[in-house]
Write a structure and sequence with these properties.
The chain contains 7 helices and 9 strands. The chain is of the alpha/beta class. The protein has a 7-stranded parallel sheet, with helices on both faces. Helix 1 crosses helix 6.
Length: 264
């Protein structure tokens, strides 16, 4: 195993974007089994300030780090220049700092929006050609390719998670397919930290009976989801993007400009 389950000291794991929704869940649920270093651009309790656009600062922050969970980014669509600085330059700096500091693994928070232009009628896996639905999706596709480069050229082991909709419960009927419960999300990130793998891409979704994505690659890393969004089917509102027939939902609309995380 890359990360043995029995270690003399717990591993030290950095989480970028730790003040966000997913970062807060991981920080809460993983702190008993590993030493966490929490970083965010915004002031937040327990977080160290870190601007991912500053390579020297990121390299300094990663001293003594075993693994990185890279969540820090704009989390929805935005003008290209903003995406370029936060999601593209920031992600490059994370991988380059990891290489320089000898970090053993990067778990990269990719997104289902790298394949958002596929029809909902088509079940897909991590090996399909990329079809991003936004500049945001393009930035995550960049991160996946960058991770492969660093894994194959410089041995920075990388797992990319194409996260669905990691929320307490589904927000609409689309998310009956894309929902990733907090419990399953923590289990998936834990599996991605521990798995013996050089490079992998997996989808991040619970055991939803309506899911569009093949989870074989995630199961191979030891992920065993427990929750099913179908439990909420009777109470969630209609999906306003259902008429599009595309997996990316409202992100697939030509003039979509971005919105809050509940619509992921």
């Amino acid at each position: 195993m890359l990360w043995p389950r029995r270690m003399s000291t717990p591993p030290t794991v950095a989480i970028t974007g730790a003040a966000g929704l997913i970062g807060s869940i991981l920080s809460r649920d993983l702190h008993d089994e590993m030493r966490l270093r929490l970083f965010d651009l915004r002031p937040a309790a327990g977080c160290e300030l870190l601007d991912l656009r500053d390579l020297a600062a990121v390299e300094a922050a990663f001293a003594g780090i075993d693994s990185v969970i890279h969540l820090g980014a704009l989390s929805t669509e935005a003008p290209f220049e903003a995406i370029l600085e936060s999601n593209i330059r920031g992600t490059y700096n994370v991988f380059e700092a990891a290489r320089r500091r000898g970090v053993r693994r990067v778990v990269f928070a990719s997104s289902n929006h790298v394949t958002g232009m596929y029809p909902r009628s088509q079940r897909i896996g991590p090996d399909v050609p990329l079809r991003p639905d936004t500049y945001y999706g393009v930035s995550k596709a960049f991160g996946e390719s960058l991770g492969r480069l660093y894994a194959e050229k410089w041995n920075v082991s990388t797992v990319c998670i194409r996260i669905g909709s990691m929320l307490e419960k589904p927000a609409d009927k689309r998310q009956l397919a894309t929902w990733l419960s907090p419990r399953d999300g923590v289990a998936l990130f834990r599996a991605c930290l521990r798995a013996d793998v050089g490079y992998a891409i997996v989808y991040g979704v619970s055991a939803n009976r309506r899911a569009w994505w093949d989870m074989t690659a995630a199961h191979a890393l030891g992920y065993r989801p427990l929750d099913d969004a179908e439990a909420y089917a009777a109470e969630v509102p209609d999906d306003p993007s259902e008429h599009l027939g595309l997996q990316g939902g409202v992100y697939s609309i030509s003039d979509f400009a971005g919105e809050d995380q509940s619509r992921r």
